[in-house]
Amino acid sequence: MKIAVLSSHTSSLFWFRMDMMKDFIENGHTVIALGSEPEAEWKKKFEEYNIDYRQLYVERNGMNPLKDLKTLRFLYTFMKKERPDKVFAYQAKTVVYGSIAAKLNGISEVYPLIAGLGSIFRGEGFKNKVVKTIMKIEYWVACKCSKKVFFQNQDDKNEFIQNGLVKGKKTVIINGSGVDIEKFKPTQFPEEPAFLYIGRLIKDKGIMEYLEACKEIKNKHPKVRCLLVGPFDSNPSALKPDELKPFIENGVIEYFGEQSDVRPFISQCSTYVLPSYHEGTPKTVLEAMAMGRSIITSDAPGCRETVIEGQNGYLVKVKDIKGLTNKMEYLISDREICKNMGQESAKIAREKYDVKVVNQSIIQTMDL
User: Fold this and answer.
1) CA nearest 288: which of 274, 275, 299?
2) 225: which strand partners?
3) 216 pLDDT higher than 90
4) Please, are residues 319 and 209 in contact by the beta-carbon 8 Å criterion?
5) Is the C or the N end of the chain the one with fewer CB within 10 Å?
6) What are the residue boundaries of the Glycosyl transferase family domain, all occurrences included (predicted)?
7) In this structure, how many other beta carbons lie within 10 angstroms of the beta carbon of residue 41?
8) Which residues contact residue 2 at a Cβ distance below 8 angstroms, ignoring those fewer than 6 apart?
9) Which whole number is the average pLDDT over 72-76?
């Protein structure tokens, strides 16, 4: 069969969905991957895995109806020409317009993944309420056009069901994107305590809370390292270079930019920190778990599923800098507990988040 995999963020498609697409191909199917970045930059990278990459027109952020109509028109034309047997889509705009475009072409085998509800969906204020109402309508239409809808956590699934956006019998829970436990293996603990954040530098992922907590930690424990890996972003809540600069210049943060292989950086940390406001299931947390690191993350949708409190790490309240700092300090003070938590993380990753098991759930649901 021919399977179209749609995303509004090409690098996410390449790094987070490659294992799934490779499994589709191993099962004898062909894959066309559609993302927002230029073909000149990405086509050869996908071809190495026998995947046909196409650039689609989509504006990841913003609510311009003319631009969104252009996205729908592009996807409609693509579906009409390529006639994929099945469509897998994730991220808001490709879920909505990909599902509609498929339905308009008589393609009923559409499987969107709701990989975390963004800041608009859970935000406050009049403008946010208006945008949220529009998004609810769009998601309702997308779910109507779909055969099954994947979710990565119970909170997001319940939110959709309670708002009447999807019927419970149409939903399927999967354990995040999974992690390649053959690639991400436990490594030796560093001699000195070190913390790490990996991700886009957007405020909704708790980057400011991490920076402020690191500032407190460095004041009290100058030898402790605080590492940061990830790109700047176009998201409205993105951190600006000038906002990060003082933390680098004052020696609070060691910033390494975007990295294609995060394993060397996970190996340098004793604890992985992600104080995000909401996630689907954060893949970087799963990777750090698989490599045997203790976890501090927020008690928020998608994040809380990865931690058994006091067993492989700790949960802190969203936007709670003091609570985050306290947990970081505690793991500095007891290396043995930190190490034991890391071992428990690796065990949980193997038992629950093995990418092969996650992909098998997707393959079975899509009847591949």
Assistant:
1) 274
2) 194
3) yes
4) yes
5) N
6) 182-346
7) 12
8) 29, 30, 31, 32, 82, 83, 84, 85, 86
9) 96
CB 318 within 8 Å of CB 335:
no
Do 174 and 273 share a domain, yes or no? no
DSSP secondary structure code for residue 303 in this structure: T
d(CA 200, CA 197): 10
Region for residue 145 given its phi and psi (left: phi exceeds 0; alpha: psi -120 to 50; beta: otherwise): alpha
Considering the domain architecture, whether residues 244 and 310 belong to the same structural domain is answered as yes
**Cβ count near 185 (within 10 Å):** 12
Q: Quick check: helix, strand or coil at residue 112?
A: strand
| Pairing label, strands 225-229, 149-151 | unpaired
> Domain for residue 186, yes or no?
no
Residue 280, pLDDT above cutoff 80: no
Judge if 340 and 360 occupy the same domain: no
What's the pLDDT tens digit per position in 224-239? 999 999 998 877 788 9
Same domain, 337 and 360: no
Give the integer Cα–Cα distance in Å for 83 and 3.
9
Q: What is the pLDDT of residues 176-191, one digit of tens each?
A: 889 999 999 999 999 8
Residue span of the structural domain in which 315 resides: 194-352
Strand order of the β-sheet with 225-229 is 254-255, 225-229, 194-198, 271-274, 294-298, 313-316
Q: Same structural domain for residues 12 and 154?
A: yes
Residue 197 forms beta bridges with which residues?
A: 228
How far apart CA 294 and CA 329 sit, in angstroms, is 13
On whether both 359 and 346 belong to a single domain, the answer is no
Domain count, the chain: 2
CA distances for 52 relative to 18, 32, 103, 166, 257, angstroms: 12, 5, 22, 32, 29
Tokens matching residue 124:
């406050």
With contact defined as beta carbons under 8 Å apart, do 150 and 229 qualify?
Answer: no
H or E segment to which residue 316 belongs: strand 313-316
Classify 198 as helix, strand or coil.
Answer: strand
* Rounded distance between C-alpha atoms, residue 313 and residue 342, angstroms: 8
Residues 234 and 320 in one domain: yes
pLDDT tens digits, one per residue of 99-134: 999 999 999 999 999 987 765 566 667 777 787 888
Q: Is the pTM of this model over 0.70?
A: yes
